[in-house]
Amino acid sequence: MHEPVTVSRANRHRGEVEAVIDGERRILCLTLGALAELETAFGAESMADLGSRFSSGRLKSADLIRILACGLRGGGNRLSDDDVADMAVEGGLAGAARLVGDLLAVTFSAAPQSASGEATASP
Question: For the chain: N or C, fewer Cβ within 10 A?
Answer without folding.
Answer: N
